[in-house]
Amino acid sequence: MSDLSWLPRESGLKDHHLWSEDMFSTEAPGVMYEKKPISDPQGNTVDGLYSAWVTLNNPRQYNSYTTEMVKAIIAGFHRASADSSVVACVFTAMGDKAFCTGGNTKEYAEYYASRPNEYGLYMDLFNAMVDTILFCKKPTICRVNGMRVAGGQEIGMACDIAISSDLAIFGQAGPKHGSAPDGGSSDFLPWMLPMELAMWNCVSCEMWSAYKMYRLGLISKCVPVIKADGKWVRNPGVITDAYVADGDLVYGEYKTGDAAKEARAYLKTAQTDFELLDKEVDKILWTYTNLFPGCLIKSVEGIRLKKKFFWDQAKVINRHWLAANMAGEAFLGFNAFNTKKITGQDTIDFIEYRKRLAAGDPMDTALMAAVLGKPKD
Q1: How far apart are CA 235 and CA 209, in angstroms?
Q2: Which of helix, strand or coil describes residue 272?
Q3: Which residues, at least 6 apart from 114, have a Cβ–Cβ distance to it below 8 Å?
Q4: Which of 63, 224, 289, 366 is most buried, taking the most CB atoms under 10 A from its CB?
Q5: What CATH number did the domain enclosing 315 receive?
Q6: Could you give the CA distance from residue 25 to residue 280 in angstroms, rounded to a whole number?
Q7: Residues 267 and 289 in one domain
Q8: Is there a single domain that holds both residue 259 and residue 242?
Q9: Cβ atoms of residues 41 and 286 within 8 Å
């Protein structure tokens, strides 16, 4: 017999998904999962091959992720990973204001603050979310449709490639709001930026433009998303001409003074269009489609291993510190941010806090009341 047809074989495909599609929802807040056909450069779709889109759907809260959304993100990346018809996974969000601003501050302040054990359980889910992105057996693309801040910056950096709207801003919020960027930024940034810039980005809580991050190599490309009179308009609030002033390259820095005011006024009424952003995503997807899938993912994971190495060293111990911190500075920071509509300020009184620590005051309700803002009349 010249063939192997006589060998016993099972027919059909097994289901390797851990979660059903019930994990996903088109209702906000939630996470959507969608398979989109791969398109060639002429716009023709390819039968049977897809990109998997994991989309954060909480635009009213700048796509911050709740506990349930974290579970759905894990499910989404696992589903993409286990689907042989999927070429790559695209991680994005609804709206044009934010990709993600991190954990849901309302949930942090009103539930997890002062509950360290509960937050430790939440951090187990968060770590699993980053792990699932890093372990996805498909290349991952972060489609940055708006601000990528704090935990949003961290889960975005866990992806392999980032393509951004030029209106997006990037940065951390931890030390200003009661935490530390230990959900990935302190691990990933030193790989993606020069060491001192990684340090400053981690601790300063400055927001950097998409153009600056492109110049520094944190993202692969940024494209305009404002269209006026049929023409693309670059972010008017950012200097997009490369020149040197006072010895510094100012490309990608934010404008100041009257120019900044004019830009803000323009942006209030500007219409966004993500056509160019989606074209860039499609280019990457088409490149991936025309590569050997086994060789592709091995190449991707060979690069990922460097990020994963430092992430794996710190993620467990960071989990415990972040949990313990929920009884102290995180309680103050998250509650200050969550009550800004009541007090008019989103941070504590840092000067008063430092003075009380220097005097040896205990971390009690009297100290907390003294440094948190007071309700406005």
Answers
A1: 10
A2: strand
A3: 326, 327, 331
A4: 63
A5: 3.90.226.10
A6: 27
A7: no
A8: yes
A9: yes
Question: Would you say residue 243 lies in a domain?
Answer: yes
Tokens at 92, concatenated:
């994005």
Nearest to 311 by CA among 103, 179, 74, 129: 129
Tokens linked to 87: 């070429």
Closest CA to 144 of 194, 90, 183, 85: 90
- Asked if 175 and 243 count as a contact pair (C-beta separation under 8 A), the reply is no
Is the domain of 54 the same as that of 177? Answer: yes
The reply to whether 9 falls in a domain is no
- Do you know the residue count of the chain? 377
Instruction: Provide the domain limits for residue 245.
Output: 231-271
Note whether 94 and 144 are same-domain residues. Answer: yes
Do 254 and 350 have their domain in common? no
How far apart are alpha carbons 97 and 101 in whole angstroms? 10
Q: Which two tokens stand for residue 334?
A: 């998250």
| Residue 189 sits in the same domain as residue 69 | yes
Q: Are 50 and 85 in contact (CB under 8 A)?
A: yes
pTM: 0.94
User: Within this chain, do residues 61 and 154 fall inside the same structural domain, yes or no?
Assistant: yes
Distance CA 181, CA 174 (A): 6
Residue 35, H or E segment: strand 30-39
* pLDDT 10s digits, 263-307: 999 999 999 999 999 999 999 999 999 999 999 999 999 999 999
Number of domains in the chain: 3
Average pLDDT of the residues in 108-121: 95
Tokens of 105: 């501050």
Angle in degrees, 0-180, between the axes of helices 116-135 and 67-81, rounded to the nearest 10: 20
203 and 148 within one domain: yes
Answer yes or no: is pLDDT of 242 > 80. no
**Rounded distance between C-alpha atoms, residue 63 and residue 104, angstroms:** 8
- Residue 3, in any domain of the structure: no
Give the Cα separation of 129 and 140 in Å (integer). 13
> What is the average pLDDT across 315-325?
96
Burial bucket for residue 268 (CB in 10 Å: 0-12, 13-18, 19+)? exposed
**Looking at the domain assignment, is residue 337 inside a domain?**
no
User: What CA–CA distances, in Å, run from 6 to 1, 2, 3, 9, 12?
Assistant: 9, 10, 8, 9, 17
